[in-house]
Amino acid sequence: MRYKISGKQIDIGEALQTHVQNELGSAVQKYAERPTDAAVVFSRSAHEYVCEATVHLSTGLSAQAKAHATEIYAAFEACCEKMEKQLRRYKRRLKDHHKDRSEPVEHLGANSYILASEEADSEPDSLQPIIVAEMETRIPSLSVGEAVMQMELAGAPVLVFRNEGKDGLNVVYRRDDGNIGWIDP
């Protein structure tokens, strides 16, 4: 597994990097068979240290965790525990443990736009939205169950994916009542 360990305006020592590689590596290997890479970023927020970790699996899924603590090692330990809990839940949700993908998840390319929000008091000059940013994004080909797991692991409120069973674009999202919604046009 490849590691990228960095700090935002914090010097990350060799001892912390070695600790992160050993601890995160053992936690991820328990529940994920083929992790590809991990990114761990340390930063400071007022009097607390913040640790953010992202682990990418060969199945195309990503797990993210974030934790705060007054000590940098404690922040990492809390983040590592959250990551381990997410991966444990992910593994339990897999219904068919002996099913392996023959290939990694296929991704389609798409454009992603960020639109400027309009002020409530002012009236827009035209109905065309103002584009603030334009980016390239990837849309994964997943089953509905995998899409729900990916959305929950990423902590995202919405996930757009290509349904493997029907070859159409679908959306899963978290509803206000806590349930998961699925849009299948």
From TrEMBL:
<comment type="subunit">
    <text>Interacts with 100S ribosomes.</text>
</comment>
<dbReference type="GO" id="GO:0022627">
    <property type="term" value="C:cytosolic small ribosomal subunit"/>
</dbReference>
<dbReference type="Pfam" id="PF16321">
    <property type="entry name" value="Ribosom_S30AE_C"/>
</dbReference>
<dbReference type="InterPro" id="IPR034694">
    <property type="entry name" value="HPF_long/plastid"/>
</dbReference>
<dbReference type="InterPro" id="IPR003489">
    <property type="entry name" value="RHF/RaiA"/>
</dbReference>
<comment type="subunit">
    <text>Associates exclusively with 100S ribosomes, which are dimers of 70S ribosomes.</text>
</comment>
<dbReference type="InterPro" id="IPR036567">
    <property type="entry name" value="RHF-like"/>
</dbReference>
<dbReference type="GO" id="GO:0043024">
    <property type="term" value="F:ribosomal small subunit binding"/>
</dbReference>
<comment type="function">
    <text>Required for dimerization of active 70S ribosomes into 100S ribosomes in stationary phase; 100S ribosomes are translationally inactive and sometimes present during exponential growth.</text>
</comment>
<dbReference type="InterPro" id="IPR032528">
    <property type="entry name" value="Ribosom_S30AE_C"/>
</dbReference>
<dbReference type="Pfam" id="PF02482">
    <property type="entry name" value="Ribosomal_S30AE"/>
</dbReference>
<protein>
    <recommendedName>
        <fullName>Ribosome hibernation promoting factor</fullName>
    </recommendedName>
</protein>
<keyword id="KW-0810">Translation regulation</keyword>
<dbReference type="InterPro" id="IPR050574">
    <property type="entry name" value="HPF/YfiA_ribosome-assoc"/>
</dbReference>
<dbReference type="InterPro" id="IPR038416">
    <property type="entry name" value="Ribosom_S30AE_C_sf"/>
</dbReference>
<feature type="domain" description="Sigma 54 modulation/S30EA ribosomal protein C-terminal">
    <location>
        <begin position="128"/>
        <end position="181"/>
    </location>
</feature>
<dbReference type="GO" id="GO:0045900">
    <property type="term" value="P:negative regulation of translational elongation"/>
</dbReference>
<keyword id="KW-0175">Coiled coil</keyword>
<feature type="coiled-coil region">
    <location>
        <begin position="73"/>
        <end position="100"/>
    </location>
</feature>
<keyword id="KW-0963">Cytoplasm</keyword>
<comment type="similarity">
    <text>Belongs to the HPF/YfiA ribosome-associated protein family. Long HPF subfamily.</text>
</comment>
